[in-house]
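I hope you will forgive my troubling you with a question about protein structure. The record follows directly beneath this note:
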Amino acid sequence: MIYYIEIIVGIILAFILSMVLGYFLGTLGSFAGYILAAIYVGYNVNEDLVNGTIHGSIVGVFTGILSSIVMIIMGVMFNLGPGLNIMEFGLIGIIIGLMVNGIVGASGGAIGSKIRL
């Protein structure tokens, strides 16, 4: 069973944490934000390890999509952030980044579920 409210809260939390921690700590801080939010979601799902992993990966992928969209909009409209420079690696780079975000989110969701169990 998919808990949509937990996923939405996790996406918002992951987006905020990844932006704030990424600003201060760089890429590792951004991934720490993903992991912390996925741990929160995996802990709140409270079913089993697989369900926490699935929810964590969903949070990771959708937060990556949201972050990519926001960075492109900031670059185009306000000339801030990476903007269109994100396209330096092309569509393949974005897809690989989303896969990494999904893996990081899945590991965080598994950790959160394991803590709950």
